[in-house]
Each structure stands twice: as C-alpha cells, then as structure tokens.
Amino acid sequence: MDSNSRKKVFIVLGIVGLLGLGIWIYSRSKKPKEQKTLKDVFDNLTFETGKDVIKPESYPYLDELANVLVEAKNWKIAITGHTDDVGSDAFNLELSKKRANAVKNYLISKNVSESLITADGKGESMPLVKNDSEENRAKNRRVEFVITKPDNTTIEAKK
Fold first, then answer.
1. Mean pLDDT, residues 124-145
2. Counting C-beta atoms within 10 Å of the first and last residue's C-beta, which end of the chain has fewer, N or C?
C-alpha cells in the first residue's frame, strides 16, 4: 500500500472513529426523556389549597407524562401523595390519597391504562424537612412518582 492510500485509510478511520465517539458522548449526556418528564411533573404539579383539585397550569406536564406512558404501553407508575402537618392527621392522610388519585384519574382520562397505575397517600407521615416554616411546609406538600419498566428498572421523581 502506498503512502497516499495509507493516508486515505487513516483519514477514513479517523472520521469513523470521531463520529462513533460523538454519537456515544451524545447518547450518554442526554437525560432520558421520561426522567425529564417526571421531574417536570414533580416540579410543576400544584393543587388548590386544601383540596385535591389539580390546577390547570399543571396540565401540560401531566399531558406529557401521559404521552410517555401511553407510548411505553406496559410501564407501571406509582403515585404517592404527601402533605405538610397543617390540619389533622386524618385530614392530611385523606387529602394525600385524594391528590394521588386525582393524578391517577387525570392520567386515565388521557388513555393511560388504569391497571398500570397505583396511587397512595402518606399524609404528613414522611416529611422531607421539619414543618417549621411556610417554605418547609411547601417542600413537604408533594406528589412523588416511580415508573417501573418491564425489566424492573425504575425512573423516580421524588425528593
């Protein structure tokens, strides 16, 4: 093989190698769409105060989650509601369950299979931080999500 042929082979191999490396880096650096979707829902899901009524500004995020779940077909999602400590334990437990079920019902209304969704509430029993300020109470009012794929890997959105 002459010098020109070797140069061409090295150039082609270099280009192929760089393309492969670029594709690998891109695929590793990209967060899975479903992880971003779950985080967006977690960060933007709001309810009317003391109620299980989802605020309309949450709908686009829930719609995106529904799209991911409908597309995946057989992914299961667990929805868990939590509250702060304002109000009685019984009221907060019931409110957290109602909020988780409101999310479940919304997803069902967007064609997510009911059999793939579980919803539960923990009330004020699992605070992230002490309920000693409005800012901390807001952190404790949350709905967490865990998607389980058929291979039992999970995608979570919780604090």
1. 95
2. N
